[in-house]
């Protein structure tokens, strides 16, 4: 869209004031120039919204100010890392593995005998003491301890877990996370 000659001249005449305002906001000449350029691009794209006879400078300064604040909010969430040193220390465990592990656990838990599953869930998941679980199940404390122990051993076998290293990420993922 080509603005009318008078409007074009008014836009160009506003550039020095816009630039000075942008420098005062950003504190950096190169960022200020980018801000002025983006302001002019937005103004030209939305020229149909400008009401002739109103204050063009006020409209342009409002666009510039809004752009600055939008960029500031966006940059606040960003971390500057020009040499990549910050990013090289970031490591995140893959999320899909935990979902698959949970599904494997649910399947294995369902395969336990009901008395073992019940004892394990009362003690392990619900946090009841062995004594409280024994009262709930109506059996001796030793019976609950035995059921929980057998349930844990059976779960470990069903999940192919040999030792504590099998908990958490697999060996390859652990090695990648250690970098």
TrEMBL record:
Assigned keywords, A-Z: DNA-binding, Sigma factor, Transcription, Transcription regulation
UniProt-listed SUPFAM superfamilies: Sigma2 domain of RNA polymerase sigma factors, Sigma3 and sigma4 domains of RNA polymerase sigma factors
Annotated ranges, domain RNA polymerase sigma factor 70 region 4 type: 103-155
Start and end residues of each RNA polymerase sigma-70 region domain: 16-77
KW Transcription regulation (keyword) present: yes
Domain of life: Bacteria
Gene3D superfamilies: 1.10.1740.10, Winged helix-like DNA-binding domain superfamily/Winged helix DNA-binding domain
GO molecular function, one term: DNA binding
A Pfam family: Sigma70_r2
Gene Ontology terms: biological process: DNA-templated transcription initiation
Keyword Transcription regulation: yes
PROSITE patterns assigned to the protein according to its UniProt record, in alphabetical order: SIGMA70_ECF
Family, per entry: Belongs to the sigma-70 factor family. ECF subfamily.
Protein name as annotated: RNA polymerase sigma factor
Species name: Microvirga makkahensis
């Amino acid at each position: 869209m080509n603005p009318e000659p008078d409007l074009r001249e008014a836009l160009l005449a506003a550039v020095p004031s816009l630039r000075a305002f942008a420098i005062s906001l950003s504190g950096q000449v190169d960022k200020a120039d980018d801000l002025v350029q983006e302001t002019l691009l937005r103004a030209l794209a939305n020229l149909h919204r400008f009401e002739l006879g109103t204050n063009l400078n006020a409209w342009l300064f409002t666009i510039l100010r809004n752009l600055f604040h939008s960029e500031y909010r966006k940059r606040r969430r960003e971390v500057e890392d020009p040499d990549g040193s910050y990013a090289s220390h970031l490591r995140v465990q893959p999320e899909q593995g935990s979902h698959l592990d949970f599904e494997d656990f649910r399947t294995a838990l369902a395969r336990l005998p009901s008395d073992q599953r019940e004892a394990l869930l009362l003690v392990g998941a619900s946090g009841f003491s062995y004594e409280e679980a024994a009262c709930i199940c109506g059996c001796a404390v030793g019976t609950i301890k035995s059921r929980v122990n057998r349930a844990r051993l059976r779960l470990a076998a069903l999940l192919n877990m040999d030792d504590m290293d099998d908990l958490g990420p697999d060996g390859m993922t652990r090695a990648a996370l250690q970098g």
